[in-house]
Design a protein that fits this description.
This protein has 173 residues and is α+β, with helices and mostly antiparallel strands. It contains 5 helices and 6 strands.
Length: 173
């Protein structure tokens, strides 16, 4: 192969490795979101339903503040073994591509190039250590004078998706 082809392939491989690095880092990013629910009945009934729902999903009630009408839950979110393995496999594939391009550029690099693959499982270890964490859920009644009160739910994005699928609640945008 000629040098321009190898150097452009090396450049594209480096871009791929940068993307892989940010993908692995984003796997543990906090994705807390807020939604507002419009209760079909009173907000107290909706709060009770939400409390039962979150307790059934292994969240523990940590505080109830009647003055500000806030209810807080806390629960431990387990990291996904599948995602840890997937991230390690993606790191192995990405590093293998980088090693192959490096071997084309530097043929004398052959002896130690494949040792770079030993750092690939660190992607799964990084995910496993950072993804398992305590998550907080906050329920708050928002009083409105002209319309019915709203219930604001602050939680992880995936938990809110599960909430929307499992409970028939009306969500305001």
């Amino acid at each position: 192969m000629n040098l321009p082809v190898i150097s452009s392939t090396f450049f594209l491989t480096l871009l791929m490795m940068i993307g892989l690095f940010f993908f692995i880092r984003a796997s543990v990013k906090d994705r807390t979101k807020q939604i507002q629910l419009l209760p079909a009945e009173s907000e107290d009934v909706l709060i009770k339903k939400l409390q039962e729902y979150f307790e059934a999903r292994a969240y523990q009630l940590t505080s109830v503040d009647p003055e500000t009408k806030q209810v807080a839950f806390k629960g431990y979110v387990q990291p996904s073994l599948f995602l840890a393995i997937l991230l390690s496999l993606l790191a192995i594939i990405g590093l293998s591509c980088l090693i192959l391009v490096l071997l084309l550029l530097f043929p004398d690099f052959n002896r130690f190039a494949w040792l770079l693959l030993l750092i690939a499982p660190l992607a799964g270890v990084f995910y496993w250590q950072k993804a398992g964490r305590w998550e907080n859920i906050m329920l708050q009644v928002i009083a409105r004078s002209d319309r019915p009160n709203l219930v604001r739910v602050t939680a992880h994005r995936d938990e809110l998706i599960q909430l929307q699928e499992n409970l028939a609640v009306k969500i305001l945008d």
